[in-house]
Amino acid sequence: MLDPMNRLEGNVALITGGSRGIGAAVAERLAEEGADVVLTYEHGAERAGAVVERIEARGRRALAVRADSAVPAEVTAAVDEAAARFGRLDILVNNAGVFLVGPLEELGPAEIDRTLAVNVRAPFAASRAAVRHMERGGRIISIGSNMAGRAVFPGMALYAMSKTALVGMTKGLARELGPRGVTVNLVHPGPTDTDANPADGPNAETIAGLTAVGRYARAAEIAATVAHLASADGAYITGAAIHVDGGFTA
Description:
By secondary structure, this protein is α/β, with parallel strands linked by helices. It has one domain (about 5-240): NAD(P)-binding Rossmann-like Domain (Rossmann fold), CATH 3.40.50.720. It is about 40% helix and about 15% strand. The chain has seven helices and nine strands; from the N terminus they run E-H-E-H-E-H-E-H-E-H-E-E-H-E-H-E. It has helices spanning about 20-30, 45-55, 70-85, 110-130, 155-175, 205-210, 220-230; strands spanning about 10-15, 35-40, 60-65, 90-95, 140-145, 185-190, 190-195, 215-220, 240-245. The chain has a seven-stranded parallel β-sheet, with helices on both faces. A two-stranded parallel ribbon has the order 7-8. Helix 6 links the parallel strand 7 and strand 8 (about 215-220). The longest helix is centred in the middle third of the chain and has 22 residues, at about 110-130. The chain is globular.
């Protein structure tokens, strides 16, 4: 019987934006369950290197690749490098994102273009590149946001729009890739304790109060759902948008 903590043995995973926060937690959880891991980063080579070191300390192979998710050629190159270096690609986690918020009048073409490039076009481009390397059993998992289901604060329209677009992408790709044995799913985290959104930061008490459980998530809790979807245990889940948000959207 397969050790449940080695569900991903022999798999290769690519996590975009994997140097910190939810991305780093996902990278380490997939490695803990047996996967070799490639992660991309745009800034923070030291943080990315630290994640690689922690994964290698578990006896898994790991690689950090610098890539700007706003540049399609860099996204595609990172996917191809992952497959070339480790000989295969089984799991893609579209995690990289930008959070540009503000009043409608202050969000101009530059902010719109950047948000859509990173939060929408990059997951599509990475998925398009990844399926060339995936065999049956492949997994594409994108990280959305609770804001796609409940935008309770003003100034969130652009960000919420970009994350909502992933719902359509996920459903469309699930139908297209299902016959090829590749599942496609979306995880919507709620407020999550990271360096970018600390559980003790400004307005954190108000934000936590909007959840049913009254607290922020740990990044590891989001990673646990991603790991389930990435494993054989998640083989019959596809086209789904799963809220791991403590009841924020309930």
